[in-house]
Design brief:
Strand content of chain A: 15-25%
Strand order of the largest sheet of chain A: 1-2-3-4-5
Number of strands of chain A: 5
Largest sheet of chain B: 2 strands, antiparallel
Structural class of chain A: alpha+beta
Largest interface: A-B, 63 and 66 residues
Number of strands of chain B: 2
Helix content of chain A: 55-70%
Oligomer: heterodimer
Radius of gyration of chain A: 20 Å
Structural class of chain B: mainly alpha
Shape of chain B: globular
Strand content of chain B: under 5%
Strand order of the largest sheet of chain B: 1-2
Radius of gyration of chain B: 19 Å
Order of helices and strands of chain A: HHHHHHEEEEEHH
Chain lengths: 197, 308
């Protein structure tokens, strides 16, 4: 076979493999993705990482492994539609800052605990990866990760013991906006204040 | 669990437990593994806080926060300092075992023979092999703990929770769950025994210890959530609701370990039917409506229909 044909064939096969990969393969891939994320998070939460670096690393993780635009739109709820394009843009950046800071703190207590992704299920467009944190006292917490494939896995939500982090965030932000008389800008100012404090 | 502890003698420190129950960490995993059923984003009402008494609730919440910071956290910290983990685990397991009769009764009321059998087996094993409940041997034997109470039972019967209530000291609740707590406390055998022997203080001590136990397990998590929240009250409200909804779902489904989830047969599947995710964009897939809450349990439904 000519070299050209060989290249063509290889390409064809490669494309075939990636597009027609059986679902099970994609799911084990998603499990690996979450395990990988767990490894990174545990590293970042280790005793040798100071808080500012921790926040910075979480910031990167939220940028690379999470579907921030989708999360932004979801957590702003109905206020997304009344926000100006500029506010939407600002919110996207502030949300990433805020989440990095909040979760660097909230997850600190999981340092040194065992994390393992156990399996995946398909739910329409969403791949749900189940994982378990084994606490030092032996108790276990189930975490379900919701992933979409956007040319790479992106996390859209995490359910910790049945509680959605995205819904919790949306509920809180909605309450803040209401306190601000329905103004999205009020929320943005409050988040800005928080991440700079 | 603390819910059992709203005893004849109302223990002051159960605030801890109530707060703790909303903490991510104090979560009993067995009790809350199922995310809610998927709901199409289009029909999601955005606000569904069901909190008509918000101003009053917030005032009570502030008061509770004061008590928490001034009394509970210091006591919980001392508890952790004084007692080694082994002793604290024994106390925890003992209190948990003491709740078995009420959990069992509610498993039965909900017509969940498998869960009832689990609870019965757990109590039997832990009371004997576990030295009167000091050790949770049943979990080691593969029978996991699950919680249950009359509020959950009423929810499975289709009774709506009513408005969100922040109870002084006791924390987040609603009329249904409060009524359930009171009912449970009257039905609890160890309370009945205690009150028949004029040992109300024993019930009180039990509630108190439960509160301290719960709070001591959640110091860091609640601390961090408070520190990083913009609106701690709203965050707790959301967490408490979702957590309660997850417990109710768990009891409705009776799937502690094996998830009869469509399409999942090939998987080990410790996790049943998770809810479909955060994206507003993808249309919600037509799955698992078996999990959908009863139409008349407004508050629970609200939670799961709020979103997607």
């Amino acid at each position: 076979m000519t070299r050209r044909r060989f290249v063509f064939c290889s390409l064809f096969i490669a494309v075939g493999l990636t597009t027609a990969a059986p679902r099970g393969m994609a799911q084990s891939d998603a499990v690996a993705f979450i395990n990988q994320l767990g490894v990174q998070a545990i590293q970042v939460l280790g005793p040798n990482v100071a808080m500012p670096q921790r926040v910075q690393r979480f910031h990167q993780l939220f940028g690379s492994d999470f579907d921030l635009p989708g999360i932004a739109q979801f957590t702003l709820g109905r206020y997304w539609r009344i926000a100006t394009p500029q506010q939407q843009q600002d919110y996207l950046g502030l949300l990433q800052d805020y989440l990095a800071q909040a979760y660097a703190g909230r997850l600190a207590q999981y340092a040194g605990e065992k994390f393992a992704a156990t399996g995946a299920q398909q739910q329409g467009d969403i791949t749900v990866v189940s994982s378990e944190i084994t606490r030092n006292d032996g108790s276990k917490i189930g975490v379900q990760w919701h992933l979409i494939n956007k040319g790479g896995w992106k996390i859209t939500d995490a359910y910790v013991a049945g509680v959605s982090m995205a819904i919790t965030q949306r509920d809180e932000f909605a309450s803040v906006i209401q306190q601000g008389g329905g103004q999205v800008q009020y929320l943005l100012d409050r988040i800005r204040q928080k991440v700079r404090s | 669990m603390y819910r059992r502890q709203l005893k004849l003698a109302l223990p002051g420190f159960v605030l801890a437990a109530s707060l703790a129950v909303t903490g991510l960490i104090g979560a009993r995993p067995a009790a809350a593994q199922q995310p809610p059923a998927p709901v199409p984003a289009a029909q999601a009402p955005d606000e569904g806080t069901n909190d008509p008494y918000e101003n009053t609730n917030r005032a009570i919440f502030d008061f509770n926060q004061g008590v928490d910071h001034a009394v509970l956290v210091p006591v919980a910290n001392a508890y952790r300092t004084v007692l080694p983990p082994v002793a604290r685990n024994m106390i925890h397991d003992f209190l948990q075992n003491l709740n078995s009769p009420i959990i069992f009764a509610n498993d039965v009321l909900q017509a969940q023979p498998n869960l009832a059998a689990e609870t019965f087996g757990r109590a039997l094993i832990n009371t004997t092999v576990g030295f009167g409940g000091l050790f949770d041997a049943a979990t080691a034997f593969g029978i996991p703990y699950h919680t249950n109470d009359l509020g959950i039972t009423m929810a499975t019967w289709g009774i709506a929770p009513g408005p969100y209530l922040m109870l002084p000291v006791l924390g987040p609740s609603n009329p249904r769950d409060l009524a359930g707590d009171i009912g449970d406390s009257f039905g609890d055998p160890s309370n009945i025994v205690a009150s028949n022997h004029h040992l109300i203080w024993a019930s009180f001590a039990r509630g108190l210890t439960s509160g301290i136990d719960e709070r001591s397990r959640n110091i860091e998590s609640l601390n961090e959530i408070e520190r990083t929240s913009l609106d701690f009250y709203a965050t707790i409200r959301s967490l408490a609701r979702q957590r309660r909804a997850a417990q109710i779902r768990h009891q409705k489904e009776d799937v502690p370990n094996a998830a009869p989830f469509q399409g999942a047969s090939a998987l080990p599947a410790p996790v049943p039917a998770p809810r479909v995710a955060t994206l507003p964009t993808p249309p919600a897939p037509p799955i698992t409506y078996s999990v959908a809450p009863q139409p008349n349990s407004v508050g629970d439904l609200q939670k799961s229909s709020m979103g997607r």
